[in-house]
Design a protein that fits this description.
10-stranded antiparallel beta sheet, Lipocalin, 150 residues
Length: 150
């Protein structure tokens, strides 16, 4: 059996990797240009997307961003959400938050959760003080305003 050189991927695996990278690039990209890391727990104060502008009830939505483990977790007034947050070598990152399985919650809570997921995946840049309040934004006016809990 012929061995391949160290560090070389077999062609089928390389093709799969290209497809996964292409799929990930279709999600919203976050340009990390702020003053510090976004790791930690955050309270969601405001969500703006597709013309909707809502202020969740205080403490209703909490997010936890963990860059070293590439994870995003949170709870909304409807249910828990999980996803990923990755940063590439150029400082760009992607939030990917799959829609969680349906649960029985109010129409308003479901709407709020759907808006949060849409706004997170569309985020393009962040601005603000990473020790206090940050806006995850995009030029088309989608926004998630978060305040640090810890």
């Amino acid at each position: 059996m012929r061995s391949r050189p160290a560090g070389k991927l077999p062609i089928p695996l390389l093709g799969l990797l290209v497809i996964l990278v292409a799929a990930a690039s279709s999600c919203g990209v976050l340009q990390v240009d702020g003053a510090g890391p976004l790791d930690g727990e955050w309270l969601v104060d405001r969500i703006v997307v597709d013309g909707a502008d809502i202020t969740p009830e205080s403490g209703a939505i909490v997010l936890r961003i963990d860059s070293p483990n590439s994870t995003l977790a949170g709870r909304t007034s409807c249910q828990q959400i999980f996803g990923s947050f990755t940063i590439d070598a150029e400082g760009k990152a992607t939030f990917t938050v799959p829609n969680p399985p349906g649960v029985d919650c109010s129409e308003a809570a479901q709407f709020e959760q759907d808006l949060l997921i849409a706004a997170l995946e569309r985020s393009a840049t962040w601005t603000g003080d990473a020790s206090a309040t940050v806006d995850l934004v995009r030029a088309d006016q989608s926004l998630v305003r978060i305040s640090r809990l810890n």
